[in-house]
């Protein structure tokens, strides 16, 4: 096992082993009550930084792909999900215009530098169909100036605006940008009852009060609409 994979395996085990079942239950609610609105059941979906598979296992879709270097990921994926274990900033083994949705949660900030993030977003653009969507969820350093760095593997500070700017540079158009969506943690701090998670998803008035993660939905336009990519 290479050092990076070993580190990922150790970090996940240390952080999440005691909350794995609850985290999966939270993601089941998030997928059912929120993210399914952006993803049809006929979609081909790639989960970028899939971790233990909480999103990709729970989102209804015809074709599912998980990408992660964690050696534990494969054993935790539901049957039928394709696993890609490689550096996400190099060319993906996915055809051009093959995906309907790329989803990523709390992942981009873990990449080593901005250049790696930009190469990753460029690959997402290449692999998405015209009008395909990328959905980015992540901690917003504007609202977490100290806590952001409590995680050893956080490398790059991101905000909703910086992430939107990168997506636009790579040719996406922003459909929705929410600076404050989910709390920083939905599982490690207090473990709210699942019915409260469901209510939270359906009460946007609460998001500015408790949200510390941004949510961005961006679309790939047809070739004639590309005005920013070189």
Give an account of the 3D structure:
With 230 residues, this protein is α/β, with parallel strands linked by helices. The radius of gyration is 17 Å and the shape is globular. The N and C termini lie far apart (39 Å). It has a 7-stranded mixed β-sheet. The protein is built from 8 helices and 7 strands. Strand 2, helix 4 and strand 3 form a beta-alpha-beta unit. The C terminus is likely disordered.
Enumerate how many helices there are, as a single number: 8
Largest sheet: 7 strands, mixed
Q: State which percent range the strand residues make up.
A: 15-25%
Structural class by helix and strand composition:
alpha/beta
- Helical proportion, percent range: 25-40%
Radius of gyration: 17 Å
Short description:
The protein is of the alpha/beta class and 230 residues long. 32% of the residues lie in helices and 20% in strands.
